[in-house]
Amino acid sequence: MKEEGKQLKVIRCENYDTLSKKAAQYVIEKVKQNPSLTLGLATGATPKKMYAYMVDDYFENKTSYEQVKCFNLDEYVGVSRKSKNSYYQYMKENLYQYIDVQEQHTFIPNGTAENLEKECEMYEQQLADLGGVDLQILGIGENGHIGFNEPGTSFHAVTHVVKLAESTRKANSRYFSSLEEVPTHAITMGLETIMKSKEILLLISGENKAEAFRKLMDGEITTDFPASILRNHPNVTVLEEGAKVEV
Ligand code: PGA
Questions:
Q1: Which of 16, 19, 41, 46 to mutate to test the pocket of ligand 1 (most atoms within 8 A of CB)?
Q2: Within a 10 A sphere around the Cβ of 97, how many other Cβ atoms?
Q3: What is the per-residue pLDDT across 132-160, written as a single tens digit (0 to 9) for each?
């Protein structure tokens, strides 16, 4: 099984700060190489400090995002873009309000669209029209989800509406006033969409992700653990800290 994990390049980091700095440097370098890069972006706790370092760099070195396109992985269904819990607001708060990215170059599914199926199709098409993602940033759920592709999702899924796993709702309830308030559904890029990215940077931080990290490296490639599909991708770099497990 380990053989199949060979393509995943792993960089183990000392701590969350180092991981975040390295992730930011990685992205910044790619933007410098290709100023009209299409970035795939993730939300959640893990990439927050990476965004903070990108913002610092923007102020210090003026790395420009004017021609960069940004596509987010996912958004909650039923949560308005005005809500502090929307990933739309997360991106504004953590990154977009500070840098020179153009609003019309930032894409995120609309979780309150009247026709969610159509919204998914449109999102997939917008991404395809721009030539797909050049560099996709990913986090990972304790259950192995990437984006909101929960265990059991087909490896062939494109952007779609997903029912969130109860463990995911529980994990994310820290941002809401109660578990009941956590949305039950989300729109997510599918695993096939993610796998079409030319390059992937996966961030894994914290002891609670140790089991997911181990499974990613050593486990089977199975829809029961969605992130395992990444082992079939030719260009994935994993930045990891805190797992304290040998792989
Ligand atoms: P986290 O979320 O970065 O908040 O742990 C990751 C995920 O659930 O994909």
A1: 46
A2: 10
A3: 999 999 999 999 999 999 999 999 999 99
| Ligand 1 pocket check for 10: Cβ under 6 Å | no
How many Å is the Cα radius of gyration of the chain? Answer: 17
Query: For ligand 1, is residue 86 a contact (CB within 6 Å)?
Result: no
Residues 6+ apart with CB under 8 A from 180: none
For residue 3, pLDDT over 50 is answered with: no
Q: What angle do CA 101, 239, 218 make, to 5 degrees?
A: 135
CA 31 to chain centre: 17
CA-to-CA dists, residue 218 to 53, 204, 242, angstroms:
31, 15, 17
Predicted confidence at residue 2, as pLDDT, reads 45
